[in-house]
Amino acid sequence: MSDALQKALSQVRDEIDSIDADLLALLNRRARCAQHVGEIKSQHGDAGFVYRAEREAQILRRLQELNPGPLPNDNVTWLFRQVMSLCLSLEQPLSVAFLGPLGTFSESAAVRHFGHAARLLPQMSIDDVFREVEAGHANFAVVPIENSTEGAIGRTLDLLLTTPLKICGEVVLRIHQHLLSTAPSLTGIKRVYSHAQSLAQCHEWLNRALPDAQRIPVGSNAQAAQQAAADPEAAAIAGDAAAERYGLPKLAVSIEDEPNNTTRFVVLGRHDAGPSGRDKTSLVMSAPNRTGALGYLLAPFTDAGVSMTRLESRPARHTLWEYVFFVDIEGHRDDPAVRVALDELARRAAYLKTLGSYPVAVF
Length: 363
What we know:
This protein is of the alpha/beta class. The model has no long low-confidence stretch (mean pLDDT 91). It is globular. The chain folds into 4 domains: 3-89, Chorismate Mutase Domain, subunit A (Up-down Bundle); 93-175 and 262-269, 3-Layer(aba) Sandwich (D-Maltodextrin-Binding Protein, domain 2), CATH 3.40.190.10; 178-252, D-Maltodextrin-Binding Protein, domain 2 (3-Layer(aba) Sandwich), CATH 3.40.190.10; 279-359, Alpha-Beta Plaits, CATH 3.30.70. It has helices spanning 3-43, 53-66, 73-91, 105-114, 126-134, 154-162, 196-201, 203-209, 221-229, 240-246, 293-304, 336-348, and strands at residues 95-99, 119-123, 140-147, 151-152, 166-174, 178-180, 191-195, 214-218, 234-238, 250-252, 262-269, 279-286, 308-315, 323-330, 351-359.
């Protein structure tokens, strides 16, 4: 290495060292501010509200607006989520229940929303995830609610009808499915394990690449990875988290049939989120069984100028051939136009439950 090159590199490295020292000081200064916030809340009887979804969304959006590059916004968002997660853990570590075991897409969604400092509590079923928060054993739950190719997650919708929990956030996760196996090649694979939805999402690829392999649905992709790790003639369809956690090589990557395969998760807690400036409200309602009833129910949104982003029907469990409708609208329940629409809807609907208002996912 020439003296000129060594001198130039040394100057840049000295600058990096100086910047790192400044960053460390600023991060600790931010952490002390977070501790001070906790002290103020405790003094005013608000200690239980450690995590504020609306405040976090506002911070991340502001940082994206301020970001001059070269770091892309998704990297900036990831970095500051980790910073906020660590600062929150100084006040009170957040516990988050999700559909386990470790290595599922639900775990990835939980980490994406709450950061690596959160205490993760994997559960055996979506029912158990709800119960863990309802019983006060966890602060929040993260559950899948819909997939872009396979549609709604029926069990989540059913449980939302009866739970006292509120939707206080959402996570939109791009789903990349990989074929994981210790087998040396595709020709040695006789069985493919995965969650039923993942098998469906990779149906055409499996028909082409592994037409004779038995397809075995299991409770989660992480469970599939565990079984494939113990069976040299088996493979699992799962994501990066499962591949890393269970030490499985990727025989094929991104095998999902739809290139934009995405799953939306909702975050559930015991309290509503406040307005963040860009919000969504989810609700469920039922209509009287007569002609034009659904149009009659939806009219208040049109009249108030409120945009509806999702409408999903689901059979009512208590009455044969009757349905409930899950609806997402733009805006927070405290926004004037949304409040007007919901008040009128309450007068028209046979049944109405507001599931929560929460910030739109920040990518």
